[in-house]
Specification:
419 residues, alpha/beta, eleven-stranded mixed sheet, 14 helices, 11 strands
């Protein structure tokens, strides 16, 4: 009998030290991806953190007691920085576990991959947003990106990197997911990172999965987690799915999408994995709760998808921002199941958040989208429709049994802003 936890928790206090920090080292990128959170540009911002600033930031992250936060260097395209190897080497020398998330452009060559590995990077992620060149290249904005990704993957694995494949799931590509899963496995990936679209940046032009479709996809991902390690981003309700599926009397029949994905998976990979693996338990880490994002000019956010500015590392130490900023939310604690509508008290730090500092309607729209997408909790919650009807008059297609405490907070937040 397996004694592995259904949901992993971080052993240290995530209110004082993050588990993982994402640093957007630049916003420059040659691609024009449809779903780009950063709305990347072709040239680096002259205000982006310098090499000296970057070294100081790495020093700050290594000033925590061990274990240090995991560090991911992303963009834009981090390969647009000539000092990337220097940053990786320095971070590694401090004892940090540094990973790279590059874009597949002409700057990502086998030689550059080798030099980053020699500098000490441990893992590298590559994006694959479709099982065909037509789908993926359409996402990325340039022809040939799909073929280049498949060509470079063996070199990434051969250099000793843990290869992680990132895939953004939307209505336009979800039906390719089983074929994409097979492709990811064939590439020798260590893990499949699935991103559930948050319509920010250029992603506002794409169509997110509906709540019903999202539920089907999450259960399908749980099904295939014995084939490859699965990690979801912007879908923390995957933890709730894992807990539900652990119950001996729970059975998920699923909707049409679930049936289609399951049938295609069995056709491509067989009903039972040849070498089944132990599913990777999802981790209880969320935006501002074990997770932090630092952008190219040093601004700190709970997540790259949540535009709540918390401070800047050139003005205030990262540790002070993370621990004391009133804009990094403490998520509501899970409550026991019950028939009554659950009421979640807004944490003190959130009550002090200055909503009037949201800089424009676009940020406010992003916040509304974020609150809806972050439908996450560790238990079923029964709610009345009015709890978030102010945000989504049509109910957003969400069934009441799947609404989480975060939407209670979000509904109150939006009403305070009168939107």
């Amino acid at each position: 009998m397996s004694h592995a936890p259904t949901v992993r928790t971080v052993r240290h206090d995530i209110n004082t030290k993050p588990f993982i920090v994402i640093w957007e080292v630049t916003r420059a990128c040659a691609l024009v991806c449809k779903h780009c959170r950063a709305d990347a540009q072709h040239h680096a911002n002259p205000r982006q953190l310098s090499t000296e600033d970057g070294l100081k930031l790495l020093d700050a992250l290594a000033s925590y007691p061990r274990p240090y936060p995991l560090v991911v260097l992303t963009g834009g395209d981090p390969c647009e920085r000539d000092d990337l190897e220097q940053l990786v080497e320095y971070g590694t020398s401090l004892g940090l576990n540094v990973s790279i998330s590059p874009s597949v452009t002409p700057k990502l060559t086998p030689e550059r991959i080798s030099s980053l590995r020699e500098a000490g990077a441990k893992a590298m992620s590559m994006s694959l947003d479709g099982a065909t060149a037509a789908t993926h290249d359409s996402f990325r904005g340039f022809p040939g990106t799909f073929d280049a990704t498949l060509a470079l993957a063996p070199h990434v694995v051969g250099c000793g990197f843990r290869l992680q494949i990132n895939s953004t799931l939307t209505r336009s590509n979800i039906h390719e997911a089983p074929a994409l899963l097979k492709q990811v496995i064939d590439m020798g990936a260590h893990m499949w990172y699935t991103f559930f679209l948050v319509p920010t940046g250029r992603g506002t032009q794409l169509h997110s999965l509906s709540p019903t479709e999202r539920e089907d996809v999450l259960h399908w991902l749980h099904d295939v987690s014995d084939r490859i390690a699965i990690k979801t981003t912007e879908a923390p309700q995957y933890r709730r799915v894992a807990l539900q599926r652990k119950q001996p009397d729970y059975a998920y029949s699923g909707g049409d999408l679930y049936q289609q994905l399951t049938a295609q998976t069995h056709k491509l990979l067989g009903e039972v994995p040849v070498k089944p693996r132990r599913p990777r338990p999802p981790m209880a880490v969320n935006s501002g709760s074990g997770f932090a994002f630092i952008d190219h000019i040093g601004d700190v956010y709970p997540s790259g998808f949540l535009p709540l500015h918390c401070g800047n590392v050139t003005d205030t130490s990262f540790a002070d921002i993370y621990e004391h900023s009133p804009r990094i939310p403490e998520p509501p604690r899970p409550r026991p199941l019950g028939r009554q509508v659950q009421r979640v008290r807004i944490p003190h730090r959130l009550r002090r958040f200055p909503l009037d500092r949201l800089r424009n309607d676009r940020q406010l729209s992003s916040l509304r989208s974020y609150l809806f997408i972050r439908a996450a909790c560790l238990e079923k919650v029964q709610l009345e429709a009015f709890l978030f009807a102010h945000m989504y008059p049509d109910g957003g297609g969400m069934s009441a049994q799947c609404l989480p405490p975060i939407l209670l907070w979000g509904s109150t937040l939006m009403k305070r802003r009168h939107v």
